[in-house]
Amino acid sequence: MSPDDIQSIFFQECEEGLASAETALLAIKAGEHDGETINTIFRAVHSIKGGAGAFGFHPLQSFTHLFETLLDKVRDGELSLDPPLVELLMGAFDVLADHVTAIRGEGEQPDDAVMKRALRDALSAAPASAPGLASQELGLSFDIDAMMAELTVRSDIPAQDWRVTFMPAAGDLAHGGEPLLLLRELAALGGQVVSADPDRVPTLDAFDPDAAYMGWTLRLPATAERATIEEVFDFVSDPGSVTIERTQFDDAMRSAREVILQSRPVAPLATPAAEPPVAQAPLAAKQPKVAVGATIRVDLDKLDRLVDLVGELVITQSMLSQRLASNGLAAVEELADLDQLTRELQDSAMAIRAQPVKSVFSRVPRIVRELEASTGKRVQIEVEGEATELDKTVIERIGEPLTHLVRNCVDHGIELPAQRLAKGKPAEGLLRLSAEHKGSRIVISVSDDGAGIDRERVLAIATDRGIVAADARLSDEEIEQLIFAPGFSTAREVSNISGRGVGMDVVRQNVQALGGRITIQSRPGEGSSFALALPLTLAIVDGMVVSVGDQTYIIPLTHIVESLRPDRDQVQSTGLGNRVLNVRGAFLPVLGIGDQLGLTGAVSEPSEAVLIVVETESAGSAILMVDAIIDQRQVVIKSLETHYQQVEGVAGATILGDGRVALILDVEGLVDLRAPVPLRCAS
Amino acid sequence: MRRLTMLPVLDRSGVRLMANELRDMLDLGGAIGIDAAKVERIGLAGIQLLLSALRTGAEGTTEIRLIAASRAVEEAARVCGVTERLLGDLLAAAEVTG
Hints:
By secondary structure, chain A is an alpha+beta fold. Chain A is built from 23 helices and 22 strands.
């Protein structure tokens, strides 16, 4: 493990520490003032402080020191958790989060002078006492000692070892030099290859027998003389291809270890005699050891590879099933077991990539606090289902849409306290976040109890901007959908949301790009609710297998409303040759997949085909005409862009049980391409 | 599987010959097994040839495997720090078969 690896782990631990600290802070704000809640925050801040010192992030170390000192006073009961102090802790947490963002190189170093002064002021209110920081051994999640120990064990050699790098020159082999001889001599001196780079050796088409492609880094014990090592390389043609140096790596790690050790107490103070009476330290009553999680960190690429391989296994298993069935062996018991095991393996592989949605929800309180400060509104946050899990990639990509929805709810939905009171509502508005599984999707809702969408205003703005015709007759739902139209924004959005480069149209695009859908429910005076229906994973999709001509396609089930077979006279032609079908009072366009994709041999008469009613976000409902429905199943998505190129109307590909490739239709794209202009404008 | 037996001495001239043999076999298609059991002397060029062949198999459509290796090859791979890369499959197979 290199110093960079350890730092990377430290950053991850910071994020996890911040998340748990924020959860605890919110619990405190809600009235939970028990000792363990304070300890959770203390542990997180203390852990971050330790790492900050080890890696030389001095501003962060300095800030966490103050923050931790204050928390220690609270923990010892010297400061009481009144509302101003809770607010101070929340503010300090925000600054701490900014510091962490800064050390990761993702933001500016925060100006923490004001907050530090506030922390010192609060500390001065506490009775003077002996320094109590880090006075107990804590169950830190970021165990830098263990990491250092690992490094020590791994190197297990005296200080000041030699690090030797050797990269033979291109012509060394051709001139009779044999690097293996040098490597053997170094091995005789106690040298060990730390790294070689065989990846530099090309494939046979570019292979040159005279070229030296590889290079090495070796570690030699400190007992070896520099002159002896240099002698090994006496006959190397290019002295610049060799470096010999003392190991800076170990030096840095030893320094880091010393810093950590110095930040620890000289002797544990939690002896029975020194333990304060429970009555004087109500918050320090409980001090359970944090359980060591039985977890390991795994490179995401390895997980992706595993998921990919499992996908291949699912395909192969499906092909095997089909092959056996065609040979009359469909009822083989072991085949059913294999099918079951494959599905379970697939679920397990997907579950490894799953993360709780909490990691996204945990960002919301801060956003709301900032909005409260800038708008003068008061907002209470209610969260439900934050343990609900979904794919890591989906988690990473819903952050921005969710942030915008939250801003939207607070900025446009929830009224000012005076306005709410005048309407008979509590002064504090309610923002509710929830997540739950529904079938193969997860639904994340963001709702408020504010004023709801002002439909008249939305319609007026949309008309004014030419998004809809002046004489358009739209339903309430269609008017609400207008806020997702490109270019739509209210005047207040321009003042408050502009500059972030995100509009509701981008929110919808982001959700759609994930294969999800967003819907709105709004009641004037009662509030609005945005629901994001997202796939649990981006690797598989539930699809309907259909045939068109001699081709097989997959239509994602998420778009399908129903399928039907019309009578001959039910489908009507418009003057332009387009066909429509009246489905319970709504005329929907009938789009032949064969026509759309330029296929020959597809059924052209709707009454002889199967019509599939689909719903899209961008172009409303439509009907896709296919020859027949073959099956309904989960399919493993293969990227077309990766293996070929992007194709309009096609979202990806999959391999069917019989080994054939089937394209997965991009329903949004297909329908949007052919949607009548008024319909496209209206949405 | 076509088998290519490596020369006992894999110096640069030997490597050049073997590289050409391998390229010819690739043109013929089909899986290739490299037998390095009789290699008595091998330098960096030989190690690089074996690595190149395995990489070609891993990245292309033709399966190329090292099916046997002499002690000389094992020692050279160890000195180069590429034992796992070069002999990993062989060692795993040896473990399985006991």
